[in-house]
Amino acid sequence: MTEDILKLKKEAAEYLNNWKRERADLINYKKDEARRVEEIIRFANEGLALEIIDILDNLEIAMRNLPEEMKEKHDDWLDGIEKAVSDFQRVLARYDISRIPVEKFDPALHEAVHTERDGDRVEEVRAGYTMQGRVIRPSRVKIVK
């Protein structure tokens, strides 16, 4: 009889330990799932942000390539374009989307699209952006000497 009781106590302890382990696994799973959902929510606007960035790129290119006579004759048109660029930049900043600085080549942030000799200077070809610290579009750069 005592042998049976000891056996049953051992089984009960084993079942209790298994239950505790499974309970801990469930709690860990819930925490992991909550982190995944939070990550999905944080980056849900990434696609929209990339589309806005493409529009911003086009506006900046248009402003860079604007002939001088257009700047002089149509300054109110130019002011409107500059305001649109500023508005896009403000919207991006509100969602913690920032432009990647181009100082020194960093393969984690930059994509080298052209190299002239063994370069020590980096020129931006296309702006890159991070969203909440994560690269959503690397900067395209040209490395020149």
UniProtKB/TrEMBL annotation:
SUPFAM superfamilies: Coiled-coil domain of nucleotide exchange factor GrpE, Head domain of nucleotide exchange factor GrpE
InterPro entries: GrpE, GrpE_CC, GrpE_head
Domain of life: Bacteria
Keyword Iron listed: no
Gene3D superfamilies: 3.90.20.20, Head domain of nucleotide exchange factor GrpE
GO molecular function, one term: protein-folding chaperone binding
Gene Ontology process terms (BP): protein folding
Pfam families: GrpE (PF01025)
Functional summary from the UniProt entry: Participates actively in the response to hyperosmotic and heat shock by preventing the aggregation of stress-denatured proteins, in association with DnaK and GrpE. It is the nucleotide exchange factor for DnaK and may function as a thermosensor. Unfolded proteins bind initially to DnaJ; upon interaction with the DnaJ-bound protein, DnaK hydrolyzes its bound ATP, resulting in the formation of a stable complex. GrpE releases ADP from DnaK; ATP binding to DnaK triggers the release of the substrate protein, thus completing the reaction cycle.
Description of how the protein assembles with itself and partners: Homodimer.
Protein family (similarity comment): Belongs to the GrpE family.
Name used for this protein in its record: Protein GrpE
Organism annotation: Candidatus Yanofskybacteria bacterium GW2011_GWB1_45_11
